[in-house]
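To illustrate the input format used throughout this study, we show a single complete record. The first block contains the structure-token representation of the backbone; no residue identities are included at this stage. The design step must infer an amino acid for every position from geometry alone.
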């Protein structure tokens, strides 16, 4: 079958890596798993006998038909020819017997060009309690940014949003030769254990998400300047500014705890 790079199709062919990724979800015998972009089913074949329910979200119609035919006699596997960004994950927490599970596990090799969009989509489901864990493969540079600590050169908006929603573990990195066709980049597998921190930080999710987005609007600007652009006056900022944030700090140097402290004062002023 011809490959379609425009769909981000670089198929994982390293059998040991497939096993490591599948096992990284942990015990899934009583879990519902959603696989994003299963492709030819290299990881699907490992997951199917190991989980209670498996939903495969495949955008490519030909690949979806291939998988649907392979699993036509397995009632525990459902293949969806669908765009993950347009798929509501919350209904998938209910199985065919209408018994609600606590949450979903997610696994997938994310297309490089929409990795951020998929992560944001997963965060929305996580805030609704629909996701417990995700094991995701992505471009190494993106994974490095996601796992970066505040103050490091890699820390940015995606780091902050991910760490606001989940604990991040960097599992391993794969070379281009593990894929067919080989991509031009290395790929890293991350495990995200979802535990949204809004209650812990004392902030309202929608409001704080919008606030956090505004603080990273222009990377070259200081936090204070970004907030002025967002509509906060110098007087408001001076009155609310916590001692834990240096006056000229940029957003990438500010931990989430300090961001939340500033947000709480600004919205209640």
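Output of the design step:
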């Amino acid at each position: 079958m011809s490959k379609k790079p425009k769909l981000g199709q670089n198929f994982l062919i390293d059998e040991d890596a497939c096993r490591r990724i599948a096992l990284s979800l942990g015990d899934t015998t009583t879990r519902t798993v959603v696989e994003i972009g299963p492709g030819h089913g290299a990881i699907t074949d490992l997951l199917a006998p190991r989980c209670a329910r498996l939903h495969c979200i495949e955008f490519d119609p030909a690949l979806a038909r291939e998988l649907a035919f392979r699993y036509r006699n397995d009632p525990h596997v459902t293949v969806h020819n669908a765009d993950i960004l347009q798929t509501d994950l919350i209904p998938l927490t209910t199985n065919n017997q209408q018994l609600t599970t606590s949450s979903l596990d997610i696994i997938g090799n994310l297309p490089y060009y929409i990795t951020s969009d998929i992560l944001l989509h997963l965060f929305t489901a996580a805030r609704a309690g629909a996701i417990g864990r995700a094991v995701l493969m992505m471009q190494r540079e993106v994974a490095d940014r996601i796992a970066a600590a505040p103050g490091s050169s890699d820390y940015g908006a995606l780091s902050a949003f991910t760490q606001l929603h989940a604990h991040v573990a960097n599992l391993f990195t794969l070379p281009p030769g593990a894929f067919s066709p080989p991509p031009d980049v290395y790929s890293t597998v991350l495990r995200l254990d979802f535990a949204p921190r809004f209650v812990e930080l004392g902030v309202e999710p929608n409001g704080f998400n919008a606030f956090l987005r505004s603080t990273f609007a222009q990377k070259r600007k200081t936090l204070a300047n970004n907030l002025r652009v967002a509509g906060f006056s110098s007087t408001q900022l001076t009155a609310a500014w916590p001692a834990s944030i240096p006056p000229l700090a940029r957003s990438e140097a500010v931990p989430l705890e300090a961001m939340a402290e500033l947000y709480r004062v600004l919205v209640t002023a």
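Structural context for interpreting the output: Residues 115-127 form the longest helix (13 residues). Strands lie at 11-12, 32-36, 53-58, 77-81, 104-109, 131-139, 166-174, 179-180, 187-194.
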